[in-house]
Write a structure and sequence with these properties.
binds adenosine-5'-triphosphate, four-stranded parallel beta sheet, about 375 residues, alpha/beta, single chain
């Protein structure tokens, strides 16, 4: 007889739909009324048609679809208390005090704040006659479970985030395609991949594609890298290699925090080595297409576990994130993971790159 709401927030990721499907079906199986909250926090703030009951059939055949069928958005209103007050009122109106948030670290930080404020939001809603005292007592606490949907694999606490594996597949396919044409024409290709703060996609695809060089934010190259890079490329050509692949994360920086841009690397190679050097920026292709088998299964397992965690939550339970540890789905404290993820960003900002790598390393 419990009601639960689910929403997807922040950037979309392949594998969100299998998670939505598993949450809806596990929820219904356990006797809950499940609601879709459309367009992330915006739907929570707007209420009305944005909050709609899910049925068993409404999630039929969605596992193979990329993106998220319930929409995702970034929402300014939810960052301010008046927006969160409207969100709380909308939840109470639907009798919902269990929510699953599927999003990145920003979305999960917002969810945690919402939960912490819940009592004071209810108090204000009662005082301003927007919610009845008895309803405030019935829904006196808010249970939250988070799932991390992010192609970047940038969240500490889980081995993999939903969407990262599919993005790896997209990138590897692209590199394979580029490699054939690069070989024919003896070209050098710079492939720019997503990852503003996290080099996971760049590192893994560079390893998997036998790339010559990788630029990633957590491991800026040593001063003098320009000479090292050119020497390396020259040596490989001299041993008979007909192509060069360089993978560059969009957030790549040097030791002084200056961005390393694809254009600069191309200019360096073209000028010094006179190689025909091209840039391919994959962009949103990496977020698109069907989820991989791994992401379908990950979303499904995490979604089912999220519902179990919600059902077992008590008024004093701390919010959790469903994470992958080895091959197990586990529950980890939401705020500790968010704090650790922020600590990585701070370490990088302060040029403590070793520390950032170590903190990140534990999440991979
Ligand atoms: P991605 O990894 O794709 O960027 P994300 O969840 O980190 O995903 P954000 O844009 O940071 O994306 O956050 C998504 C939404 O979550 C924001 O638009 C906002 O509505 C809410 N949010 C983020 N941070 C906070 C916060 N500190 N307080 C309240 N709400 C927040």
């Amino acid at each position: 007889d419990r009601a639960m709401g689910i929403f997807t927030s922040g950037g979309d990721a392949q594998g969100m739909n299998p998670a939505v499907r598993a949450i809806v079906r596990m929820g219904i199986y356990l006797g809950c009324t499940v609601y879709f909250i459309h367009e992330g926090y915006q739907g929570l703030v707007d209420g009305g048609h944005s909050i709609r009951q899910a049925t068993w059939a409404s999630v039929s055949g969605i596992s193979e679809d990329g993106g998220t069928i319930i929409g995702s958005a970034r929402c300014k209103d939810f960052r301010e208390r008046p927006g969160r007050l409207r969100a709380a009122k909308n939840l109470i109106e639907h009798g919902i005090n269990n929510i699953v948030c599927i999003g990145g670290d920003g979305s999960l930080t917002g969810a945690n704040l919402f939960r912490e404020e819940w009592s004071s939001l209810l108090k204000e809603l009662v005082e301003t006659n927007q919610v009845k005292q008895e309803d405030a007592e019935t829904y006196s606490y808010l249970n939250i479970v988070g799932l991390v949907g992010s192609i970047d694999n940038d969240f500490c606490g889980t081995d993999m985030t939903i969407g990262a594996d599919s993005a790896l597949h997209r990138i590897m396919e692209a590199i394979d395609c580029i490699a054939t044409t690069a070989t024919s024409h003896q070209r050098c290709f710079i492939l720019e991949v997503m990852g503003r703060h996290c080099g996971y996609l760049a590192l893994v695809t560079a390893l998997g594609s036998d790339a010559d060089w990788v630029f990633m934010p957590e491991a800026p190259p040593e001063p003098g890298w320009e000479d090292q890079l050119c020497n390396k490329l020259k040596n490989t050509r001299e041993t008979g290699q007909r192509l060069n692949i360089i993978v560059l994360a969009e957030g790549a920086i040097d030791c002084e925090h200056r961005p390393i841009k694809s254009d600069d690397v191309r200019e360096l190679i073209s000028k010094r080595l006179k190689y025909d050097t091209r840039i391919t920026i994959l962009g949103h292709v990496q977020r698109g297409g069907c989820p991989s088998a791994f992401d379908r299964l990950l979303g499904t397992r995490m979604g089912a576990e999220a519902v179990l965690a919600l059902m077992e939550a008590t008024p004093t339970s701390k919010p959790v994130v469903i994470a992958l540890s080895g091959n197990q789905t586990v529950r980890v404290p939401l705020m500790r993971c968010v704090e650790k993820t922020l600590a990585v960003a701070q370490a990088m900002q302060a040029k403590r790159f070793k520390e950032a790598q170590e903190l990140r390393g534990r999440s991979f």
